[in-house]
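Hi support team,

I've been running sequence recovery on a batch of backbones for a student project. Most finish fine, but this one hangs at about 90% for roughly twenty minutes before it completes. I'm not sure whether the input is malformed or the queue is just slow. I've pasted the structure tokens below so you can try to reproduce it. Let me know if you need the job ID as well.

Thanks,
M.K.
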């Protein structure tokens, strides 16, 4: 689940803030007993980490690639990794995710929120400075690097690179300054489009190249292949997207 999806979850789950956990359970290896009786104080996210801040600890959920959640309902047959029951009868069930309890409540001590693409303190200049330290990195890896663009995942990577007409295997240090600026801008802009489209339920329909077969601009067959050190699937137009090396 990419960063913008977690921003949406923060909104959807806003009503849970202030409620008290009466029971916590699930298939994750977590000390459940410590959670009961605690109040949900705050919901935060950093990159792909979703954070439920309680009275004296924080639940960190990483939804990974196929994670999902049900608010006030549950999956018909799957066992949740984390199920929270609240004092007013409401419940929050999480599946296919990694759960950890952090013994902290001040998340600013653990996370630099200015690297989070969806955070209002997102700092493009800082990301640019980090990119300059990695001239030999492929742009597909740079965009997915959570120390530089926390919250960016594969969809945002593919769509943002299509928008700026850069081939995913291009090297950061070979990008003309104008393209570097566009890269920073579109990683941010596309993330907000992702957020808005997901909220409207039209995200998949808006994909230009991700999981598509033909280029929406020139109708050429798109290339689909794992790229970079991360070997995540890239989708790109071999005509419109320029390789800078
Ligand atoms: Zn094309």
């Amino acid at each position: 689940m990419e960063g913008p999806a977690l921003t949406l979850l923060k909104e959807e789950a806003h009503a849970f803030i202030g409620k008290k956990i009466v029971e916590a359970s699930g298939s994750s290896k977590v000390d459940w007993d410590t959670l009961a009786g605690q109040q949900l104080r705050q919901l935060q996210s950093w990159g792909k980490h979703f954070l439920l801040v309680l009275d004296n600890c924080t639940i960190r959920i990483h939804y990974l690639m196929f994670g999902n959640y049900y608010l006030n309902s549950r999956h018909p047959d799957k066992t949740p990794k984390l199920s929270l029951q609240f004092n007013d009868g409401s419940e929050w069930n999480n599946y296919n995710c990694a759960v950890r309890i952090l013994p902290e409540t001040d998340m600013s001590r653990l996370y630099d929120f200015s690297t989070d693409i969806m955070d209002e303190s997102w700092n493009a200049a800082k990301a640019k400075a980090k990119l300059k330290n990695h001239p030999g990195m492929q742009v597909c890896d740079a965009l997915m690097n959570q120390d530089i663009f926390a919250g960016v995942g594969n969809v945002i990577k593919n769509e943002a690179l299509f928008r700026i007409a850069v081939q995913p295997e291009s090297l950061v240090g070979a990008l003309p300054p104008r393209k570097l600026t566009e890269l920073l801008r579109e990683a941010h802009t596309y993330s907000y489009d992702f957020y808005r489209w997901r909220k409207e339920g039209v995200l998949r329909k808006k994909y230009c190249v991700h999981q598509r077969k033909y280029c929406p601009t020139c109708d050429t067959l798109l290339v689909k292949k794992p790229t970079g050190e991360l070997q995540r699937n890239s989708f790109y137009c071999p005509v419109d997207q320029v390789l800078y090396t």
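--
Follow-up from support: It reproduced on our side and the slowdown came from queue contention, not your input. Residues 215, 217-218, 220, 237, 239-240 surround zinc ion (CB under 6 Å). No action needed from you.
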